[in-house]
Predict the 3D structure of the following.
Amino acid sequence: MKILYVVPNINNGDGISRVIAIKANYLIEYYSYEIAILTQNKGNEGLFYDFNKSIAFYDMQLNGTIFQFFNSFRNQLKSAINEIKPDRIIICDNGLKAFLIPFIINPKISLFLEIHSSLFIEESKRKNTFLPSLKSKLICLYKQFGASQFNQVIVETQESIKEWKLKKGIVIPNPLWFSTDIKSDLSQKNVIAVGRHVYEKGFDRLLEIWKKVIVKHPDWNLTIYGKSNPDFDLVALAKKLNIENNITFHEPEKNIEEKYLEASIYLMTSRFEGFGMVLIEAMASGLPCIAYDCPCGPRAIVENNNNGFLIEDGNEKQFIQTLENLIENENLRIDMGNKAKISVNKYEIEAIMKQWNSVLKREIYFTQIRII
């Protein structure tokens, strides 16, 4: 069976690129699938993660006005599909254009939408006034309608089913891509966070929290791994907050599992999450985790006061109190870290990919009316 992934890019160090690499490699090596990946604007050049050598890479060049962009997208997408002739197409693009794909391509090909974000995701702070609120609501309705036109929608949590109001959604979490008996000894005065420097990930909120925490604990350090962004300058914010001596920034790390072992606590202050793969990575390394209960991934992974701490979204005071409690109580860190490690066994890659194989081989009946 031949699978075509359609994704904006796979050459960066973000979570979606890692997930696609993990799943595509596994489907080839264990289930003998043929895999092709279609990106846009040289999104497959200079790969960060390792992809199986048998994968066929294709790319679309898209530019111009919104109408030129869409027309080019439609024509090049159809051309690539005609050349590749896939049995299944998996869309890993949650941008607005992706939700038009069911109206573009041949309805005889099984079409899957793989959702990796919250429906309500915002790229920047939205003004709480009438027009921005109306625009946001219309975009959500458009996405929900577009998602309903796919043969199958795959989400990562049960909460996403409710959020997107899906009638034919299937929950398949991201797989835990490494397995080890080694775990952090939780003795190092280092806290870690991982993610791109964007509004969505909420690292500006984390830096505000860290400024208050190091007043009591000036010997602790915060380490952030993720792609820097001049439009969301965290280094400048750290200097403004006068915390640059207690924070270290690194670009994406391919072997991030090694870095978790150098920390004692994992923090997530995201505004939106589809799942939170970094949470299960950190928990597999034995780290106690604190996460804001944002829409809508963390609540599917973290059980408050059981395998980690889930904080009311935006409740900075509660977040700080919980973090200070973990910093000051090594026994609590050890107990919560042990529970965290046990709780993520259900995400082992063999079980997750078995679900994917079952879904991909399932016969799908076509009931949608589409415009080609």
